[in-house]
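Appendix C reproduces, verbatim, an entry submitted by the partner laboratory led by Prof. M.T., so that reviewers can inspect both the input and the predicted structure.
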Amino acid sequence: MGNAPADPVVDLDERWRERRIKWGRKLGRLRLGVEPLDAQLDRHRRVTSVMSAVSGAIGLLFIALFSAFGRPDVGLIFVAVFLLPIIVFSWAGYLLLARRAHAFEREYDAYQSERRRLIG
């Protein structure tokens, strides 16, 4: 006659599987379930720091080079146009990725607590 009521745990797990696929796409470089997200974010932060340091060092070299020829203003403009965006966008990308990772962890914790509530 009618459909039997679905098990709420099975329904919750099915919804979580769909959300996990979407989160996997949103998180891009981070791999879910392979290693803790904190470790992956830490590695990503270190790479971003090194990339910023290298770009900064190259920028200082350009400023020094143009200063040696009496035009530090050209060196500063060059650095501001070509190297500063690399640093800014790499940190913006890292911060966005970290924010998404923390949002995923909050949603995963909510799923786990709801699952525990339904089971027992």
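The helical segments are 8-27, 37-68, 72-119. Additional entries are available on request from the coordinating office.
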